[in-house]
Amino acid sequence: MIWLKDSFKKAYVEKFIEIQGSMPNTGTSWEKYRALVVLIKEKMKISQAAESMNDSSPDQEKQVYYFSLEFLIGKLLSYYLINLGIKDVVQEGLEELGIDLEDLIAEENDAALGNGGLGRLSACYLDSMAFLGIPGQGNGIRYKYGLFQQKIVNGFQVELPDNWLKNEYPWEMRKSDNTVVVKFKGHVRTESIKGKLTFFHEDYEPVLAVPYDIPMLGYGNLNRINNLRLWSAEPIKDDLDWVSFNQGDYSKAVAYRSEVEAISYILYPEDSSHAGRELRLRQEYFFTAAGLSTIIRYFKKKNNSFSGFARKVAIHINDTHPALCVPELMRIFMDEEDLGWDEAWNITVNTISFTNHTILPEALEKWPVEIMKSQCPRIYMIIEEIDRRYREEMHHMHPEKRDLIEHTAIIRDGQIHMAHLAVIGSNSVNGVAELHTKILKTQVLKDFYTIYPYKFNNKTNGVSHRRFLLEANPDLSRLISESIGEDWIRQSESLEKLLPYTSDTAFLEKLADVKYHNKCRLANYINDKMNIQVDPSSIFDIQVKRIHAYKRQLLNILKIMDLYNRWREDPSMDIYPTTFIFGGKVAPGYQYAKSIIKLITTMAQRINTDPALGGKMKVIFLENFNVSLAEMIYPAADISEQISTASQEASGTGNMKFMLNGAITLGTLDGANVEIRRAVGDENIAIFGLKANEVMNYYQWGGYKSWEEYQNFPRLKRVVDQLVDGSLGSSNEFAGIYESLLRDNDQYFVLKDFRSYTDTWQKVNLWYQHKLSWASSCLVNIGKGGVFSSDRAIKEYADDIWHVPYQNEIPG
Ligand code: 26M
């Protein structure tokens, strides 16, 4: 315990006076929030300084650096109070000062430096590394604007800028002393000095990379505070001089400044498409080069030779976005540290590991040679050399396999294949669920799998069960701890101790009460925000995630249209009242997915205002789905919709968050759903639809005939026709969706899976009416949810890939 109530109160009041020059009761909520954060930050610093003084071990611990263009961290204050074990003390102390902690928590902006699954995963992983005592640092970009805020206006998504730094972000610390220069453009002059080729990068554009650090504090672990280092791009101080000296042109000086500031200006809001924009490449090189330079600087402080580098440093690249780590590390070793190619290459490969997050071909990064050459001329030379040596080596090993070389080369048809660079330049390649890893080995990267079988491994994703269960669902957490003790907070697998309660009626009733209470909380939110009343005793059937064709929100809304049709025809139909809830953002340029939102909101408008339904159905599209909202939604779910076209969702992580909160998955055998089913058993999950191998077979033979599906199932034909027959209004809004289903042959098998989906949904609806059986299955999901904690995932990374120790025991 770092504070008792009275010492906290005293410290808080003193801190407030120090910062504001007045008493707390005169301040705004924002000022009170900031003072609390500053106080906690200082407390962390003091304890960490004490720790590092005690650390007399001569040998430096191995450091893990997690490179990611996205960290979707959400809010920190409330979570850190829990991790420090002082939430109650602080809450009571503040209350005595007349301050409501909830008001302060509400002041914090979500740090939304990520799009979705990939970005939230990196935040969960930093959390678990801090908890497990792994020296693990994040490296990313301090975007001035995070993921856009979504408003729904007339049923359409409207994007607003996310100006999260408007007020200042009190968790971050600017570390100007650690600023580095990243060099873009210019050209490379080669000179032979004493018989050695030497490279001079000349006439380059210098960009200052200024780091901002955010402390990463794990549960119960004040001794080890990790760091998330986010880089901001700034013009060099004397930019006017520099530019006028070089170009003698004022307008160029202005252009220089804005080109530099653009680098860390905004997060790209696409989560599955690669547009090949120059600015994106500049972002990638910027944070890669800046991050590596701090790693090298820190390493050199403690070591005098690079031979042990890979034993002291692990660099993990989150998708291919940081794959320029490979040539940049080579550049540093060769051009700055004077190592030869072979030694530099060995160390580089042994240091870097790589995670792939998607098989969608449109997401795979390829950069035109011309862009790479002009932005990063020296890096391009090194990539060319890596490619040349790779081809040469393959030619030696497999002289007959010319195809193999062409399929796996890094540079081909004027494009640089970043996934190939990442696979060749790393010692480990992992997928994010068993099925996904299998698809990588047998399809997407199959040629590489024949060349480097030993590099491939699976690391099924995990989520922070402390954020998404302990923090997000306090009532359930209390019920769990009262029954099985608090072990589960540190050892997620201890949730299995709940399993004996699946036949305990009194317990199951309490579980249902908790769920009801969480549904009331969400219902109140919906009422406040949207002025729509939803019945908390109806089934909450929820799909929240980015909107994308492969995730098939369309399948869900067609199901709702069908149900609505049937209900109107037969009001006595025996279906339990259901509230259908959607949430999720669309990439601003993705018109098709935008029309899906419009379809959902159009149906919502219809159904929610139809008096004949007597409130049996409601449809809600919650705007601006983000981490904070997610923390309110998962605890309130009965049904978790995980309905992607099998093979397309690499893992999913929302599925795990729902499960840990006792929702039943209604899903396809895709991504980690496969493993969820294995964990809970067939009777505690609802699976439907095509299997991955069936889908891939169809793809191989050019798809299936969606027309036949449509013709042969009248209920389906009816909802598809309704998209264009005027029943949804006179505009042509949904013609694109209609065409995608019938003319473009329904690439995502929406029509093909419709029957099996609606049948399965109906069974689930019946099942819910057997309250005890349902609650018992919910409990199995919670009890088996422990393996999907990011603690488990990080331990596997630590054991198999990074080779770092972790502390797993409860400290004494
Ligand atoms: C690429 C190029 C240019 C701009 C943006 C991108 C890009 C950004 C994010 C591409 C993909 C991005 O994210 C992919 C992603 O989020 N994948 C998800 O990763 C999760 C964590 O592993 C999985 O659970 C999801 O199944 C997977 O879709």
UniProtKB/TrEMBL annotation:
The keyword Transferase applies. Gene3D superfamilies: Glycogen Phosphorylase B. Its cofactor is pyridoxal 5'-phosphate. PROSITE patterns: PHOSPHORYLASE. Keywords: Carbohydrate metabolism, Glycosyltransferase, Pyridoxal phosphate, Transferase. Its EC number is 2.4.1.1. It comes from the Bacteria. It is an enzyme of class 2 (transferase). This is Alpha-1,4 glucan phosphorylase.
